């Protein structure tokens, strides 16, 4: 089992920044590809960003490219999502996820999920 705990969500004005963090425990963190997803009210969960086991590969949804950056620290068992130039449409619950995939994974079929953290962007 892998336990994931997100933090860093909150309320921010449009154009502002937030940094989400996800702390992992339970298994060898570097064995897992990591991802961030989000779900807005009434919408399906959608891919935001993903990072490979070593951190050498990343991928992003088109809607966040150039604004969001995913990173990981395998020594600290954490993955982060730096979100800049936030827009009201970024408002959602953001979830951290872990998977034994060998490469970055864009689909919402990860093995383990956190409880989510709310991000609200006001206009």
General description of the model:
- It is a single chain.
- By secondary structure, the protein is mostly beta strands.
- 0% of the residues lie in helices and 50% in strands.
- It has no helices and eleven strands.
- The protein has strands at 3-7, 10-13, 18-25, 33-39, 46-51, 58-60, 68-73, 78-83, 92-99, 112-113, 117-122.
- Strands 2, 4, 5, 6, 9, 10 and 11 form a seven-stranded mixed β-sheet that branches.
- A hairpin with a 6-residue loop joins strand 5 and strand 6.
- The mean pLDDT is 96.
In short:
This protein is an all-beta fold and 123 residues long. Helix content is 0%, strand content 50%.
- Strand element count: 11
Please state the overall shape, judged from the principal axes of the Cα atoms.
globular
Indicate the percent of residues in helices. Answer: under 10%
What structural category arises from helix and sheet content?
mainly beta
Radius of gyration, in Å, reads 13 Å
Give structural attributes:
single chain; 123 residues; mainly beta; 7-stranded mixed beta sheet; globular
Write the layout of secondary structure elements.
Elements: E1 3-7, E2 10-13, E3 18-25, E4 33-39, E5 46-51, E6 58-60, E7 68-73, E8 78-83, E9 92-99, E10 112-113, E11 117-122
Parallel strand pairs: 2-11
Antiparallel strand pairs: 1-3, 3-8, 4-5, 4-9, 5-6, 7-8, 9-10, 9-11
């Amino acid at each position: 089992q892998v336990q994931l705990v997100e933090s860093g969500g909150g309320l921010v004005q449009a154009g502002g920044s937030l940094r989400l963090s996800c702390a992992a425990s339970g298994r060898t963190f570097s064995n897992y590809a990591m991802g961030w997803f989000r779900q807005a009210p009434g919408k399906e969960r959608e891919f935001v960003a993903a990072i490979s086991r070593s951190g050498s590969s990343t991928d992003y949804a088109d809607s966040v490219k150039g604004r969001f950056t995913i990173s990981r620290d395998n020594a600290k068992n954490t993955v982060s999502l730096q979100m800049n130039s936030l827009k009201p449409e970024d408002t959602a619950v953001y979830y951290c996820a872990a998977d034994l995939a060998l490469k970055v994974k864009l689909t919402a079929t990860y093995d383990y999920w956190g409880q989510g953290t709310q991000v609200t962007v006001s206009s």
